Structure formats: structure tokens, C-alpha cells
Amino acid sequence: MNFKSYQNSILSPIIKTSVLLLMVLTSTNIYAQNNERARTNVGLVYPLSSNWTNAPRDTNSFSLNLIAGVSAAERGVSIAGFSNIVHHDASGFQIAGFSNHIGKNASGTMVAGFMNTYSGGKAVAVAGFTNISSNASGAQVAGFLNKGGDISSLQLAGFLNIARDLKGTQIAGFMNKAKKVKGSQIGFINIADSAGTQIGIINIAKNGEKGISATIDENQTTILAFRSGGKTIYGIIGLGYNFNNKREKYAYEAGIGAHVLKIQSFRLNAELVGGGLESLKGEGNYSKSSFRLIPAFRITPSIEIFGGPSFNYINTDTEDGRNMTTKYINSWTRNDGRNLYGFYVGYTAGVQVLF
């Protein structure tokens, strides 16, 4: 091999390597000049990912992080074993084992094992525990709590929904709370400054109706009840005492009612109520479900008297319970006559103070 050939054999790899490095540097410089970053981020946890320390400034179309991911914005799918943290907007689909945190608006779908937090947007947020936002026009579904500012869609929670102004529906296992409601609240307790339709046992609204009533029925059960609701639907909850049962003395009831007809000071109310009697000593059972059709007359602006028939179904396993009613439309027994089941017609009458 002559010197020239030897020289070429040495220089050729060096030249090729230099050209390659030059191309890489030029490419990097172009990216820097155009301010563009990689649109895919895959990693373990920030900064151990393909976007490295640039991740908080990147906008991604796809992110996959085994623990947690950080980005400026997301425009597609982002998946994290624990948490997605997006400083600005997110659209598409975000799913995390624990939480999604969107700094500004979210649109698309967010699914988290525990919590979603975001400023607002049209996202559907589903969390095992809670969703928290400032304003939302998409649905919020949580196992325990939804909290938002202005809500214009659905809040569905296992325990509690909180909103500022609602233009949609709140459904909660226990309580719904909002200021101005142009929609519906459905829960055990519903609270609003001004409400559309409230369906629950306790309904509190400044533009609603509330009343304390005292009633008696065919079995000499007296009940002091709280009735509350809107123009049509109201809730009922009450406690009382029975004078005809030697053992099960203490009475309770809860249900839903509706004003089905209104003519000046006359109203016709329909009520569906469940309740029973209790000895507080675990000595047997007496439960009762009733449908009541009750005419009511307002004798003053704040006092109403009412009374009407009731159609009742009972279930009891005590002697006192079986002896309370003698005339049934239909009745039958089980467990050698110990458990009595039956339908019969009764009545309810009372007076109510409205406020």
C-alpha cells in the first residue's frame, strides 16, 4: 500500500464522521431556530424522558410515562402510570393512574384513578375521587366530589357536587350545592340561592317553598315533618310517635311529593312516602310504603290544612304490627304466619305552616 492510499484510508472515515456531525449540528440548529420540539415524549419520570429537560416547554401529540409526565401542552394522547402534568392546554385523551393536572383549558376526555384538576374547558372528566375546575362545559363524573365554577353540563358524584352557577344537572348520592341553578339538582339534599327543579328529600332555595307540618294517620301515628321544594316537586322528611302500638312507638318517614293541581288557595298533592315504626331495641319490624292523594286548602297566606286517602303496603313481623290494621285489600303471611304483608286503604290529615 502506497502512502497516498494509506492516507485516503485514514481520512475517509474522519471525513464521513465530520460530515455526519455537521449534519446533526445543522439539524439541531434548525430546530433551535424554528423553536420546534419533538412531538412524542416517552420516558419514566421528568426529566428521564425522550424530551429530557425540554419537556416543560414541549407540545406533544403523544406522551407515555411510566410514572409521571410534564409538558407545556398536549394535543393527542397522554398516558401516565401516576400523573400527567400539563402547564397550559390539553386536548384529546389524558389518562393517569392517580391524577391529571391541566393548568388552563381541557377539551376531550380526562380519566384519573383519583383526581382531575383543570381551569376550564369542554372536557369530560372522570375521576375515582374528585374533579376540580373553575369553569366547565363538559361532564364531571367522580366517585366522591365534583367542584366547579360555572357548570353548563352534568355533575355526577357519589357524595357531593359544588358549583357556582349551574346550567345543567347535578346528581349526587348525598348533596348538591350551587348558587344560581337553571337546570336540575337531584340528591338527598339540594341547596341553591335560586333553583330550577330540585328533586330530593331536603331542598333549600330562596325562591322555593318550605313548611313544617303535623299529621296523623289511620293507625294513630303522628308525624312532625319538613316539606321543601319548588313550584311542583318537594321532599318530605319527618319523625313522630305512634299511640296504637305497644312496642314500636317511634315513627319516621321520608319521600317525594308533587303539586299536581293548583287553583288559587286550593292544591291537590300526590306523595310517595316510605317509613315505619321502631322500638329502638331491635324488637321486630314494621315498615310502610304509602301513596297519598291529598287535597290542601290555604286558610291564611302561611297556614294550610290538608287531608285525603292513602294506599298503603306494610311488612311486619310483630304481633302489635299485625293487629294495627284489620281490613286489607289483600294480605298474606310467611314464616308460619310470623311475617305479614298486605295492602290496605287509609288516610292522612294535618296542618302545615309555610315559610
Task: Summarize the structure in words.
The chain is 10% helix and 62% strand. The protein has 355 residues and is mainly β. It is elongated.
The number of E-state strands comes to 32
Integer count of domains? 3
Give the integer mean of the pLDDT values. Answer: 89
Report the total helices: 2
Helix content: 10-25%
What is the quaternary state of this protein? single chain
Radius of gyration: 33 Å
Please summarize the sheet with the most strands.
8 strands, antiparallel, barrel
**What structural category arises from helix and sheet content?**
mainly beta
| First-last Cα distance | 112 Å
Beta content: over 45%
Q: State the strand order across the main sheet.
A: 24-25-26-27-28-29-30-32
Overall, the morphology is elongated
Q: Runs with pLDDT <50, length 5+?
A: 1-11, 13-36
Quick structural gist:
The protein has 355 residues and is mainly beta.
Write the layout of secondary structure elements.
Elements: H1 3-34, E1 40-45, E2 48-49, E3 59-71, E4 73-80, E5 83-86, E6 90-96, E7 99-112, E8 115-121, E9 124-127, E10 130-133, E11 135-136, E12 140-142, E13 145-147, E14 150-151, E15 154-157, E16 160-162, E17 165-166, E18 169-172, E19 175-181, E20 184-186, E21 189-194, E22 197-199, E23 202-205, E24 209-217, E25 221-229, E26 233-242, E27 250-263, E28 266-278, E29 286-300, E30 303-316, H2 319-323, E31 330-334, E32 339-354
Parallel strand pairs: 1-3, 3-4, 3-5, 4-6, 5-7, 6-7, 7-8, 7-9, 8-10, 9-12, 10-13, 11-14, 12-15, 13-16, 14-17, 15-18, 16-19, 17-19, 18-20, 19-21, 20-22, 21-23
Antiparallel strand pairs: 1-2, 24-25, 24-32, 25-26, 26-27, 27-28, 28-29, 29-30, 30-32, 31-32
